[in-house]
Each structure stands twice: as structure tokens, then as C-alpha cells.
């Protein structure tokens, strides 16, 4: 895992929460972003509402997070949330996790920047 020292991940999460407007959706996307970019995911936790970021979000992110709304608008909040939970479960040892076709499409688009 790469250190987040050169990248203010807390600021990124804050940007996501502000842009998306829903903490759980923003944190789910931030979690998937962290995995995609090989960042440390130790400050994320799985709760009954989904994957959340528990780290400091007081930092500053230079840039925009608005384009992440495209994933939510295209695939829906439920797909974003369920996919993040299933990825969490898989990387924490549940090899029986099954992704439906829409979740696979979302992951493919997210990982390959197709939106």
C-alpha cells in the first residue's frame, strides 16, 4: 500500500462528501478510489450503512470531485453502496462474494474511468 503522505486523502474525502452530498455514497466511492490507487485503507470501516471513512477530513484537496457524481447518476446509489461493501468483504477474506452484472459494470467503469 502506498502512503497517503503526498496526497491529502482526508481532503479528498471532504471534497467527495461536499460534491456528492451523501456521506455514505462519498465514502464508498472514496474507498473504491483508495483501492484503485493502492492507498492505505486502514481508516475505512464497514458499518451497517456501508463502508465509511473514519480518518481526519479537515485537509484541503486541490481539484474537483464533481465528476464522481456521474457514477452515482448512471449506476445509482444502491449499486455504489453494495459494490463497496462487497469489495470490502472480498478483500477481508470472503471469497464467496458474488457481484451482479450491474455491479460488475460499475466496477469496470470506475476502474477504467469510463464515465
Report on the structure:
With 115 residues, the chain is mostly helical. The protein contains 5 helices and 2 strands, in the order ααββααα. The protein has helices at residues 9-20, 23-36, 69-75, 77-91, 101-111; strands at 44-47, 50-53. The longest helix is centred in the C-terminal third of the chain and has 15 residues, at 77-91.
Which keywords apply here?
single chain, 115 residues, mainly alpha, two-stranded antiparallel sheet
Lay out the secondary structure:
Layout: H1 9-20, H2 23-36, E1 44-47, E2 50-53, H3 69-75, H4 77-91, H5 101-111
Antiparallel strand pairs: 1-2
Helix pairs in contact: 1-2, 2-4, 3-4, 4-5
Summarize this entry quickly.
With 115 residues, this protein is mainly α.
Give helix and strand order, one letter per element, not per position.
Answer: HHEEHHH
Order of strands, widest sheet: 1-2
Number of separate strands: 2
Biggest sheet layout: 2 strands, antiparallel
Coarse morphology = globular
Tally of helical runs: 5
Give helix % range.
40-55%
The unreliable regions are none
Structural class: mainly alpha
Strand % is 5-15%
Question: How many angstroms does the end-to-end distance come to?
Answer: 26 Å
Q: Summarize model confidence as the mean pLDDT.
A: 91
- Computed Rg: 13 Å
Amino acid at each position: 500500500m502506498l502512503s497517503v503522505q503526498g496526497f491529502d486523502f482526508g481532503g479528498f474525502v471532504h471534497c467527495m462528501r461536499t460534491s456528492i452530498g451523501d456521506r455514505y455514497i462519498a465514502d464508498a466511492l472514496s474507498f473504491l478510489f483508495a483501492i484503485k490507487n493502492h492507498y492505505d485503507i486502514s481508516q475505512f470501516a464497514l458499518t451497517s450503512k456501508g463502508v465509511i471513512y473514519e480518518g481526519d477530513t479537515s485537509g484541503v484537496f486541490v481539484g474537483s470531485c464533481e465528476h464522481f457524481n456521474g457514477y452515482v447518476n448512471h449506476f445509482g446509489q444502491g449499486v455504489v453502496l453494495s459494490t463497496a461493501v462487497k469489495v470490502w468483504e472480498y478483500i477481508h477474506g470472503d471469497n464467496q462474494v458474488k457481484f451482479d452484472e450491474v455491479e460488475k459494470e460499475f466496477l469496470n467503469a470506475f476502474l477504467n474511468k469510463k464515465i
